[in-house]
Amino acid sequence: MSDRGGVRRDAITRAWFFLEQARRLPHRADFREYEAFEAYLEAAIIYSRVAIHRLHSQARQRAKGDPHLKAEVDAWWASLLEDPAIPFIRDERNFIAHEGPPKFNQNIMMGGPAPGQKMEELYYYETPDIPATETIERHLRSVERIVTDAERRFGTSTLFGLWEG
Q1: Among 78, 14, 2, 99, which Cα is nearest to 49's?
Q2: DSSP character at residue 136
Q3: End-to-end CA distance of the chain
Q4: Does a structural domain hold residue 3?
Q5: Among 28, 50, 105, 141, which residue's beta carbon has the most beta carbons within 10 A?
Q6: Euclidean distance between CA atoms 78 and 56, whole angstroms
Q7: pTM for this predicted structure
Q8: Does some domain include residue 160?
Q9: Domain count, the chain
Q10: Does 104 fall in a domain?
Q11: Residue of 132, 131, 134, 153 lying closest to 142 (CA atoms)
């Protein structure tokens, strides 16, 4: 989970929540488990994109009427496009939203699941030995760094409230 502290209601925390839910699912022969796993990964991707979108919107809003800050925000945003997490999250989210479920690769196991095997061992983006959950986690960590940096630099926030407790 995110190390940002407290019970938060922001998009990054939600993305981590869904990624952790995916990681907890054991591999079973029941295809309903596949559906849940894929849905959790989709939600992690979507909330990652939501965090980026909210952040960009707030930074642009804050820069309205301040040409110097607008130039800084525009330069910052352009530099983010070089981070591999941004196109990955954007493209995956756009595919999910406009076309269908993500295009995961799958490892096919003969003879059913081994004891203790997790669903995450079956899905990958890059190579069969790098689970899709690791790819998403790597990009989510990058998005989290981007959010933290922007909150510090521009005084923006993707946080829309704390749970009172």
Answers
A1: 14
A2: H
A3: 20
A4: no
A5: 50
A6: 11
A7: 0.85
A8: no
A9: 1
A10: yes
A11: 134
